[in-house]
Amino acid sequence: MGSNMLHSQGGLPAAAPSAQREVLLGLLGSSPPAREDIATLATDDPLLVHAMFHACPLDGGLEQALSEALAERVERIGASLLSAWITLQEGVREPGSRTDLALRGFALRCADLARQLAMRSDYPFPDEARLAGLWSRLSQMLRLDPAHAGRTGSAAALNARLAAECGAEGPLADALELVEADDERILSAHPLARLLWCASRLASPDGGTPDAVLARVAGVDSACLHEIREHCPIALAPQGPPETSALAPAAAQPVSRKLLEAALAGYARTAFEGLTGDALRARLHAGARLLCATAPALVVVARGERLAALPLTDARTEAHWAAADMPLDDPLSVVALAARSATPTSCHGDEGGSPARSVRDWQLARWIGRHGFVCVPFSCEGAPAAIVVAPERVQMPPPDATRMLLALVSAAASVASAQQRHDEAERALRREVETLHREHARRTAHEARNPLSVIRSYLQLMPQRHPEARGLAEDMDLVQAEIDRLGALIETFTEAPQATVEPAFCRVPELLHDLRAAVGEPLFERRGIHLELRTSAGLPPVAMPASKLRQVLLNLLHNAADILHPGGRCTIALAGEVWADGVRCLEIRVIDNGPGLPPERLADPFMPRPSSKGGHHEGLGLAISRQLLADWHGRILCRSQNGIGTSFQLLVPVRDSE
């Protein structure tokens, strides 16, 4: 079920005016994409709404504003993949027939009526009622055969199934199926079903249901029904010759398939840029469901003589696959056969549960919750690879859907492979550095042992040469103990450092409280300087390791403590979320009421130069702080006024929710 059924129906219907789709493409192409504007415009496109919820399903129903839910899906699916969907629709779109326009007009009016009825009857989720109205003619707009419903064979049953596949398997799907019930049966249904039942009859031009019945089912009075009708008037039917069948597709318009496929491949290549881990997995899953109706269950690629899983699908299935240790030349597995022969294969399991010809294939089918699967071969950077797909029926997806799936998975696989190479290169570099460190440490420790031995010898002779010195032997024992500690410390340099992977994000309020506890008393309170901390709760984490941000803040606090006099004040303020150059950031301010920066530093406070503070200060703290922030796409700004004080503004990007 899903958009792949469209491929057998000829040209696609005009679900929305081309001008509206062109505006959407423009908004998707902006930087950054205008999520809220895109979502608002999408609410009037029933097929686009269906596609977005099919890509990222609901959790039973819609309990938030429809535009908010769509804005979240714009973020999760990504502008490139949504642009690909619109391009695909427009590339094979036929001119809108009278029936297409009438179906869309009915769905939009039914949606508005359902929302109005929901608000007048105090239904708590009016946008859920609007979504039900948008999908009231979904199967007809998709030109699907009601036989797909599998039970009653009605359009209402098929609409309910389509909604369930979008995660709306509760009252919303029930409402779509009960829309053809009689007025006595509908009275005992869920309120959403009653609202949609009334809205669909109010939207119908013939208006055959008496107002008294509609008012009783909807739970409103007749005057309210009249006001709702005035608010949502019936649009005039489009003029033109009659059509023989509401679902008979016209001939598709000729298109340049090569141009269309090139455009879709381009969108696929940009869809996964900069994504790793779970964000990459989620984007591929959503994109495959959006454009191909089904997501890959596993993606494998040859690594030497074995077939390894790429980190693109369910992590647990990938772990099971790794433990199974599949050889590329396995003579029984259809997965291995597809990869090494570049030929599509399929595994048809036994519903009774007995193992298939290949136990590995049988286990894989169980891991992905299917009785069988198909394998689509492809090449991942020159290496044999295969996509495991598990549709409801064990058969190859339609050719167009297969080509789109290959484009998506190939693009995501290239990103995943590049990330794996990067990670392996980092591990190799770390191993090399650790080896060099140990070798250097061994040589250093060896060279240090000689002077330490000489010092120990002279310390042992000192009491013998100066027997008259009282207590000298005890003092030399203390010095000997410290020398031994120094020797032990040098020996630790020869040990390999323990590799630790620090999370690439942190929560700023907790970090600021820990920092204040660590440096508040020694740096400020002992000197009579007041340190004030202002934070806010409920803020998202930032995309920067805690140790790096801590080092930046320590540099700024040390600078403030060095220039403030007793009675001075330093404030750390977590101001909240701001947008900087299109990036959502947390703003942190470090402010002091000291004398201000020296005049020679005002032009560029972050330029390394000798410090005027003397001593151990090297004038590198601000330059290091700026570089640390830049490494994590952050920024630091400085404002200073002579005799008034200095303020540093840190803008640290918020961690991406993908």
Automatic annotation (TrEMBL):
PROSITE patterns: HIS_KIN
SUPFAM superfamilies named among the record's database cross-references: ATPase domain of HSP90 chaperone/DNA topoisomerase II/histidine kinase (SSF55874), Homodimeric domain of signal transducing histidine kinase (SSF47384)
GO MF, one annotated term: phosphorelay sensor kinase activity
Domain Histidine kinase intervals: 443-656
EC number: 2.7.13.3
Organism superkingdom: Bacteria
Record bears the keyword Nucleotide-binding: no
Catalytic activity: ATP + protein L-histidine = ADP + protein N-phospho-L-histidine
Keyword Transmembrane: no
Keywords: Coiled coil, Phosphoprotein
Signal sequence, start to end: none
Pfam families from the UniProt entry: HATPase_c, HisKA
Coiled-coil region(s): 408-435
Entry-linked Gene3D superfamilies: 1.10.287.130, Histidine kinase-like ATPase, C-terminal domain
Protein name: histidine kinase
Native species: Pseudazoarcus pumilus
Lineage, uppermost ranks: Bacteria, Pseudomonadati, Pseudomonadota, Betaproteobacteria, Rhodocyclales
